[in-house]
Design brief:
208 residues, 73% helix, 0% strand
């Protein structure tokens, strides 16, 4: 088996799709793209399952399982939370089934690609595929980690939210997120994403 440096010298590392189409034809390119697609989706679904299992273990409800109810009493009831937990388990089971299906499709496409190419070219394509997909997978992992941190703070806020604290005197219907913010008190505010140091300095000079 040739090492990665030898295959990089022999085959291109950029515009690989054009190279495949020119030297191996459209069918080979179709198989290669399928392998890459299933490889990424398999890893992506694994991350989804890991994310959902962490949510379940920490009793965190993902945002896609939040649904509207007629009133706050229903949304804060044990029945509502139990329904969310059941739906979370259903989603995990569905993801596991999808993972098994992707595993079968990935192995089939990978074996087909191996049959169509030489050993060194197959290794070269596999290295390119892993490099491209690892970037996307790491990006997805960071996104899921951010979601998890956000869900932790929201769920903690919701857990201690008392609907009786806020009295809405307007005709506008407030969202759950708005009610949670108001329940923290009138002196509560969210930190800005960025601070304009010039504006801060100007304001400081005005009030001095």
């Amino acid at each position: 088996m040739m090492n990665a440096s030898n295959t990089r010298n022999r085959y291109p590392t950029v515009d690989i799709d054009d190279y495949i189409r020119q030297h191996h034809g459209s069918h080979f390119l179709y198989i290669y793209r399928n392998v890459k697609k299933f490889y990424y989706r398999f890893d992506a679904v694994q991350l989804d399952i890991e994310f959902l299992k962490i949510c379940r273990s920490k009793d965190i409800i993902p945002s896609f399982l939040w649904f509207k109810t007629a009133n706050n009493d229903l949304s804060s009831s044990p029945v509502y939370k139990a329904c969310q937990r059941k739906l979370l388990n259903v989603e995990i089971d569905a993801k596991r089934k999808k993972l098994n299906d992707l595993k079968i499709m990935y192995k089939f496409s990978l074996n087909h690609l191996r049959e169509l190419s030489s050993a060194d070219f197959f290794e070269h394509l596999f290295q390119i595929m892993m490099s491209e997909c690892s970037y996307l997978i790491n990006k997805k992992r960071r996104t899921l980690n951010k979601k998890l941190l956000s869900l932790c703070s929201i769920n903690n806020s919701t857990r201690y939210y008392n609907a009786k604290v806020v009295t809405n005197l307007s005709s506008r219907v407030l969202s759950d997120e708005e009610l949670i913010c108001l329940a923290n008190g009138l002196d509560y505010c969210l930190p800005p994403k960025s601070i304009n140091s010039m504006n801060v300095a100007t304001s400081k000079e005005i009030y001095e």
